Amino acid sequence: MPIMYNTGEWFKVRPDYYRKVELDTPDWPLDIDLEYMQVVAAPYGGPLAAIRDPLKLVPVKGSSRPMIRIFDTTGRETGHILWNHGKLIAMGWSDTEELICVQENAKVFVYDMFGTEKESYTFGDEASVTKILEAKVFQSSVGTGVAVLTTSGRVFLKHNSNKTERKLPDIPNSHVDCTCWEIVTEGRNSYCLLGREREIIKLFPGETVGTIKDNLFEKPHDRIIKISVSYNHQHLALYTNTGLLWLGSVDMRQKYCEFDTGRKDLPLQIEWIMNTDNTESDAVVISYPSFLLIVNRNADRSDFPHDPSMFLVAEMDGVRIITQSSHEMIQRLPKCVENIFAVNSQEPASYLFEAQKKFEEKSYKSDEYLSMCREKIGLAVNQCIEAASYEFCTETQKSLLRTANFGKGFIHGHNPDEYMRIMRILRVLNTLRHEKIAMPLTFKQFSHLNPEVILSRLVFRKHYGVAIQVAKHLNLPESWILEHWAYHKVMNDHNDNEVARKITEKFKNPSVEGISFCNIAEKAHQNGRDELAIKLLELEPRAFLQVPLLLKMRKFDRAVASATQSGDTELITTVLLEIKMNMMLSNLHMTIRDHKLALNMYKKIMRESNRAALYGIYNAEDDQKAIAEYHFENAIESEGLESNLSLIGNSYTQGRCPVEAELCAETSRMLKLQKTLSSKHGVDFNGLSIHNTISNLLKLGDLKEAEKVKNDYKVPDRRFWWLRILTMAEFSHWDQLEKFAKSKKSPIGYEPFVEVCVKHKNKVEAQKYIPRCRETRKVHWYMQAELFEQAIDCAYEQRDLHSLHELKKKDSILNDPNLLDKLLKYIAQQHS
Q1: pLDDT in tens, 199-227
Q2: What biological process terms from GO does the record include (predicted)?
């Protein structure tokens, strides 16, 4: 089917089609002429670094000092580096878009894309002393590595800046110089391939000496001058001084072809063209001055005249070509694109594309084309969606997506998820390819990097608005982007109020979650803008995030206030301990005195760790009650209560605590009395309670002194009677007890008399007092005194049937027939 649509840049290297895709034309500064420059470009549409080629003669304009200039893909300068170090040997870009520069003394400098130095490291003493001849920047499994070839013919490599350097094996017959070399990564290992005359030397880590591979070419040649390894490190290209090209596997066990280019001039670069459909590679691009040659593994070729100065950039799905006036990409044509747009294509997707066009023209032929692909319309729709993802031209993308949308209308229950996913990604890719963003990514590159990496690169380039819109479009979190925007504002806008206002305005959106004002405040503090940091911390609702930074800023009063408001005791404790280490005690007291919870927590901490510090707090607050308690606790612990009671009492008096002050006075009198009593009776009274003091006096028979203590300290009569009863019973003074019971009416009744008699198993004495007990308790006490006959008579008189039945259970009654008959008789009478 003859369709010519966007195929003008196709070319064939049998049996496959390739295409050149025009990217945004770079607009270089007027003083940049790439013909006299060394240029290295980062993959994935990344930045370029250019420096004047010292091997080419060129009139010097301005300073003669070397300068590395950094550009984006549209030729816009993003930064520069005044090279004031040693001789620059090589440059390269890392996988995180960092420029790696290697100088002659084996020192490596790392810069970001704006020319700011990030770190530096060295390859060690041996490489430093022998000097670097050449260097390579390569991608390893653990990051971006650097390999160096010294003037002594030794190869050292580092897999990343954190790894130690590794010395590769010796080069066999090292008296002959190598003409080219390359690094190959295989799994976790990296090794070196060197070209020397007509042989390839492999230096693998762990071996003592390198292995030699020769006789790779069938045709005669003098030496191998170029080595190129494919992007996936699976394929190898070798180029000789006679223009022979050898293509094969990287292990050199499989040879694809040997091709005579017929050219005697030296190639500038050789790069493999990776396929878009898979991870294989079928062809290489060779650049010569003003000439470009493409050769595939079938030994077919295609060539183009080109600008005299060009630089090739290997990508995972093609090769970019950067010149003074153009920026292009060579790709193997995706199969789905070929199926749709190839001349005389008979594929279902091609028919569906034509059917959609005719439908828009309102032509009846639309149905004819549709009938040709109706059986495979699902495949046709999928190929149109896939083809749209590979296109750079927005009009072509729209046409293919319209075709897919048209076709899926004829599929019952079609799932539109893939269609929507590709459409979202294409909108993002078209935005990234815009000249203001200058990140010409392909769909395959976008999928490989993943959206998070893309967003981080946009943020690093300070395209915050675009990054936020992309995140929203792809349903990804945007809070961290806003945080980076806030960091940028903090570092570059010097109006604190304006910065705080803008940040508050941006972050008040309820759809933005996970924002931490503390992180931004931390940045402000690092930049010496503490006032701005405090303004931002006031916006942070989580106290546990506020407090650490406030302490770091030594804003202790704000830290205490924030921690206290949170009510988190652990947080308050942390703040107090930190302040205690960094502030005088007097200032600390002034800081926390207005925060009751913090003050109480501090008192608790000091009570457990440093009680002496408590006195300072109480004294500063004039808290006389607390001072009295402090002295009291110290007196108890030091066993010096008597000598301190006067001081404690005075403090209570000043603190308007009359009850406590009176107790101190009474305790002082009691202690003095106890000393006198101890001397008088020869018994230790010191420290006894009033109760025990009276009890001991009664036991000693000093009733007069006991009554005096009772009256002086207002001991209740009930307690005093109990003490006398217990004392007389303890010493079996039963006559005195009876006399005491008759002396006056007992304030505690007569049950205590019975109780002490029962306790000492004196039934006779107990029987004297039971009649004077309450009627309801008499039966109980008769039973307790084991006076069962009296208990039976009393229960009968009181008509207490329950007590009679209880008595019936007693063994003493059951064993006494007379009592048992009497009891049963009384029970029977009560039931009648």
Answers
A1: 999 999 888 888 999 989 999 998 999 99
A2: endosomal transport; intracellular protein transport; vacuole fusion, non-autophagic
